[in-house]
Amino acid sequence: MKIQENISLLPHNTFRMDVKARVFAEYSSVEELRALLERYRGEKILHIGAGSNLLFTKDFDGVILHSAMCRARCVSEDNDHVWIEADNGLVMDELIDQLCDMGISGLENLSYIPGEVGASAVQNVGAYGVEAKDVIETVRAIAKEDGTERVFTNAECRYGYRDSVFKNELQGKYVITHVVFRLNKHFEAKLDYGNLRSEAGDNPTPTTVRNAVIGIRKQKLPEVSEIGSAGSFFKNPIVSRDTYETLTRQIRDDRVPHYDQEGGVKIPAAWLIEQCGWKGKKVGGAQCYEKQPLVLVNTGSATPKDIMDLAAAICWDVKDKFGIEISPEVNYI
Ligand code: EPU
Which one in 21, 35, 165, 212 has a CA-CA gap of 20 to 30 Å to 108? Predict the structure, then answer.
């Protein structure tokens, strides 16, 4: 295990906030994780993945844990499926790349999302019509309190849109160490989202779908290696049908983009933000991204306050203009 004190978190968050952590500890096995949990019991502990869905708002006066476990293995198979167990610290896109090479499908629509396996199971990452929950079979986790292991079934994870039990009742209580994905040997492409079908070409394979997704993402979203960001900053709001109909009357246009959902209508936050005129606008070093206003970026000099001020101003304007509340998907730390 590797323990560092008073280190900069700059390399550990994709927003590139230059804040410090009192302790940064990395483990390479479940035994090491248990030892760290024992050693720092009672202290403020935050487990991070690639730091691609959080905003450090100030120095972190506690212990940051990170996993250096990054393997995957086949744990079972039948005629149609393969069950792959992946370590929490494996970069999701590396896993997807390998699976596509082997012709194993189910995760290809999630290509190029920054982040590691453990976090994907906490926040139920999703893109292009697929969510992690569609292929998660079980999640293995260690209780922070006493180091015991618990296996959660998919149902027990209580997945929802960018949501799970680990973001609610069990927030901060468990460290997910492994995720078992139930994947397919026979490919059935999921191409109904946006222009994915035309981009994937005829006779799609997991790899051609992966490449199409990467192409679309590269056109719309900033490269985290070049521009600081945490992907989508806000969640898409799900409103009642009444609210949606009021909105179409308000703007005198029935072409308000929307997706019917169980329990309401999902409106793209990107559209609401663009209507409020925020696309490309800046507050200090923080900017609402020109190509996809759901994303806030660090133009190089953004402080945590710049990002929070920009986010708050956008939320306020959307609420003021449309009466709809949008909330951050990014976790403020
Ligand atoms: N739109 C605009 N203006 C824009 C861009 C988009 O009005 O400049 C509207 C359009 O109506 C468009 C709609 O927003 O049809 C949806 O846009 P997009 O397909 O880009 O998807 P999104 O709903 O904005 C979600 C995820 C993304 C994911 C894409 C594709 C959330 C919070 N975000 O964005 O996830 O890549 O769908 O599936 O659900 C991420 O989580 O970091 C992320 C990028």
Answer: 165
User: Is the beta carbon of 274 within 6 A of some atom in ligand 1?
Assistant: yes
Ligand 1 geometric centre to CA of 268 (Å): 7
Question: How are beta strands 130-131 and 81-87 bridged, if at all?
Answer: unpaired
Phi-psi region of 106 (alpha: psi -120 to 50; beta: other; left: phi over 0): left
Give the Cα separation of 332 and 308 in Å (integer).
9
Residue 104, sorted as left (phi over 0), alpha (psi -120 to 50) or beta, turns out to be beta
270 lines ligand 1 (CB under 6 A): yes
15, 65, 88 from 68: Cα distances, Å: 21, 10, 8
Pairing outcome for strands 60-67 and 20-27: parallel
- pLDDT tens sequence across 209-263: 999 999 999 999 999 999 999 999 999 999 999 999 999 998 877 689 999 988 8
Q: Does ligand 1 lie within 6 Å of residue 128's CB atom?
A: yes
**What does the pLDDT look like over 279-302, one tens digit per residue?**
999 999 999 999 999 999 999 999
Cα-to-centroid distance, 140 and ligand 1 (Å): 31
From residue 116, give the alpha-carbon distance in Å to each of 113, 135, 238, 241: 9, 16, 27, 36
pLDDT of residue 250: 87
- Known catalytic residues are 162, 232, 329
Whose C-alpha lies nearest to ligand 1, atom 20?
A: 292
Task: Decide whether any atom of ligand 1 lies within 6 Å of the 235 Cβ.
Answer: yes
Q: How far is the CA of 99 from the centre of ligand 1 (A)?
A: 25
